[in-house]
Specification:
This protein has about 550 residues and is an alpha/beta fold. It has 26 helices and 10 strands.
Length: about 550
């Protein structure tokens, strides 16, 4: 046990360490905390704050170890258990984090922050009712708790209770007007409601309060792109790596420099894909533009696209993601190319087709489908749930339908449908709506080269917002997109066409979740097309 003079010196060291810590000088603070723990290994506060500093540096493993040491010395400290929960949550150890928050609450039943933190874990597990109960307890204990109101808004938003989310975000902002996260979240709620100008105003205000707030930059980028403001939108879109946890995992880190559009003469460029399959299919159109800068081009892509992308003559080598990369001089993520080429609405490289099905595969499907005077129409009714990513999961709920909702199309005479649906929703093809002639060949579609060959033999593709829309569009096939009310930024606003794909037609929801009018309009358009088309099976 330290002597009285040592105790006084350690107290002074802790006070100085706290000053450094509160002013953001983590290195100096940690050095002093370590000196205290060496002189007084029983000092729980020093171990705890050393762990908090480690968490602030992003070293959550160290934070867990250090805060656990603090707890072993003072197990009754509710704050220690709460902060251990925070470090565990950052490591995606959700159940352990929840247990830590519960221990904090057991030791301090009026600990509002611990209730809110426990609710965060439950929300991320989609246990919304339980999460809301804990937030209400937090607010009962601390009625001016702005973060809890913001959290209530997130729970409402994720359950598509957008009006209630707006109310909660506004309550948070009434308590804390400079709360950038709540302002950004309010903007996201406005965006889902189609109030894009209001959303942009919120994002910009959030950025005045927190200029490096990456999520607000990314949301602003998507709103600007949706409005066709590409000059600002593409620049803001470069924040995507920091603005989304899902995209951050997609970011590549190479020792070679990132290509910025300079000459490639005598050098090799690696284009690496990012995000979803549809993003790759849409933006691989820029490969020929990059090739004009000289040099040799390698594309690293998702494995299901490997064979298909080999149809692009400008690409010297296609490498599936996960395979060893050949040597290269510079690299570029695919969705940074529109910025490099200063893309505007008028300069989108929209020539189609730019992707081709393999001739041999197409011939095989021509034989299987056979000649017919009926229209052959491909269908996709659902996306991928992506339960691991709450944002994508929420978007998928808004974009996806069931096959049963396609019943209006079944009443159109002279049409035969082909399922292009993959994933968990594919099994619905076994029970199509009454009257729908639907053939399901998807068991024979092993990658996008196979799918492209089947699509090449169809007269039309009708799909919700999935990668198949981009595949058909890139092949120059007629494609009808059934778009949710808060459509993706790439489809712009209030347009039935797209500058990205000349043969794309968009059927938009007139209101959130209003799919019936969309299917009715598509059925009417399909009836007109089927009754006026004279088909020759060139397909």
């Amino acid at each position: 046990m330290p002597s009285a003079p040592q105790t006084a010196a350690l107290s002074q060291a802790m006070q100085l360490a706290l000053q450094h810590h509160q002013q953001g000088r983590l290195e100096q603070a940690e050095s002093l905390y370590r000196q205290v723990t060496q002189a007084d290994p029983a000092n729980a506060d020093a171990w705890h704050l050393l762990g908090v500093a480690a968490a602030q540096r992003g070293d959550h493993e160290a934070a867990v170890s250090l805060i656990s040491r603090a707890i072993s010395r003072r197990p009754e400290a509710a704050l220690f258990h709460n902060n251990l929960g925070n470090a565990l949550k950052a490591l995606a150890r959700a159940d352990e984090a929840a247990a830590s928050y519960r221990r904090a609450i057991e030791r301090q039943p009026d600990f509002a922050m611990a209730y809110n933190n426990l609710a965060k874990v439950l929300r991320e597990q989609y246990r919304y009712d339980e999460a809301q109960q804990y937030i209400q307890r937090a607010l009962a204990l601390q009625p001016d708790y702005a973060e809890a109101y913001n959290h209530l808004g997130l729970i409402a938003f994720e359950q598509e209770q957008i009006d209630q989310a707006v109310v909660s975000y506004r309550q948070a902002l009434a308590l804390q007007p400079d709360y950038a996260e709540a302002r950004n979240n309010l903007g996201a709620a406005y965006a889902v409601q189609g109030q894009i100008d209001e959303a942009i105003a919120c994002y910009r205000q959030a950025l005045t309060q927190a200029p490096a707030y990456a999520a607000a930059h990314l949301n602003l980028a998507q709103a600007l792109l949706l409005q066709g403001n590409f000059s600002q939108g593409w620049r803001e879109y470069e924040w995507r790596w920091q603005g989304s946890a899902a995209l951050e995992k997609d970011q590549r880190h190479f020792t070679q420099p990132q290509w910025r559009g300079e000459s490639l003469a005598g050098r090799t460029l690696l284009l690496h894909t990012e995000q979803g399959l549809g993003d790759t299919l849409q933006f691989i159109r820029y490969a020929p533009l990059a090739a004009r800068r000289g040099g040799r081009m390698i594309v690293e892509c998702q494995p299901p696209l490997e064979r298909l992308l080999r149809s692009l003559p400008e690409i010297a080598q296609v490498v599936p993601r996960g395979a060893p990369l050949p040597s290269f001089d510079v690299h570029c993520p695919l969705l940074s190319l529109p910025l490099i080429f200063d893309t505007t609405l008028d300069t989108i490289p929209a020539t189609a087709p730019y992707l081709q099905a393999e001739a041999g595969l197409s011939a095989g499907w021509r034989q299987r489908i056979g000649a017919s005077r009926r229209m052959n129409v491909g269908l996709v009714w659902a996306g991928s749930p992506r339960a691991h990513d709450p944002v994508s999961h929420l978007i998928d709920r808004r974009r996806s339908l069931s096959l049963a909702q396609f019943a209006p199309l079944a009443a159109v005479p002279g049409v035969h449908f082909y399922s292009l649906q993959k994933g968990t929703a594919a099994q619905q093809a076994a029970a199509p709506p009454a009257g729908m002639e639907l053939t399901d060949f998807t068991a024979d579609l092993h990658d996008f080269s196979d799918t492209a060959a089947l699509v090449s033999q169809l007269d039309l593709v009708i799909s919700v917002d999935t990668s198949v829309v981009h595949l058909a569009g890139a092949m120059g096939k007629p494609v009808w997109l059934l778009s949710r009310f808060d459509g993706c930024w790439r489809w712009l606003q209030e347009r039935a066409d797209s500058p990205w794909y000349p043969r794309l037609r968009i059927f938009r929801q007139p209101a959130p979740r209003a799919w019936a009018p969309v299917l009715a309009d598509a059925a009417e358009a399909l009836h007109r097309l089927a009754s006026t088309s004279s088909l020759s099976p060139n397909r």
